[in-house]
Amino acid sequence: MRARLMLLLLLGSSAAVAAEQPGPYLYDLMKQEAYLTAWKTMLGPDLVPDWVKSYADTLDGPPTPSITVPVNGDKYTLGFTCKAQDCGGNQLYVLFAPQARQAWGLLITGESHRWLGHPEPPIQQAILSRVE
Q1: How many CB atoms lie within 10 A of CB 86?
Q2: Domain 2-131: which CATH number of 2.60.120.40, 3.40.50.2300, 3.10.580.10, 3.40.1420.10
Q3: How many separate helices (H) and strands (E) can be counted in the chain?
Q4: Per the CB 3.0–4.6 Å rule, which of 6, 77, 102, 117 could disulfide with 96?
Q5: Cβ-based burial of 113 (10 A; exposed 0-12, middle 13-18, buried ≥19)
Q6: What angle do CA 12, 122, 10 make, to 5 degrees?
Q7: In the 8-state DSSP scheme, what is residue 22?
Q8: Considering the entire predicted model, what is its pTM?
């Protein structure tokens, strides 16, 4: 299932996604102050694995382009990363609001998942629409 999730993000889950132009890589977004701030706010005081905490500093993860995901008529940016050398059970999907005003994440660890940044149902659905 985890391999399927990554494959769907990489290849897209519909013809519309396949027609989209790939966006910037998550590691490039992290070099922009607004995205870095949204990332740090999303993580907040939550207990997350070390690889997630350090990603913004190390940028150690697969080079996967982001994609545009519509939410309530606006274009959001969905990025992906995973733990280096252990991607199968350690994945993070991050959805950024326009202009990186806010970020939310779905952390998948083994068979469990956890939401970061307290996303409302439309945000959760937008992320899940590209994961499932």
Answers
A1: 10
A2: 3.40.1420.10
A3: 6, 5
A4: 77
A5: middle
A6: 15
A7: P
A8: 0.82
Cβ proximity of 94 and 79 under 8 Å: yes
Assess contact for 116 and 43: CB atoms under 8 A. Answer: yes
Structure tokens at 32: 């922009």
| Nearest one of 122, 130, 92, 103 to 16, comparing CA atoms | 130
The DSSP result for 61-117, as a single string, is: S---B-EEEEETTEEEEEEEEE-TT-GGGEEEEEEE-GGGS-EEEEEEETTEEEEES
The amino acid occupying position 112 is S
Tens of pLDDT along 64-121?
999 999 999 999 999 999 998 899 889 999 999 999 999 999 999 999 999 999 999 9
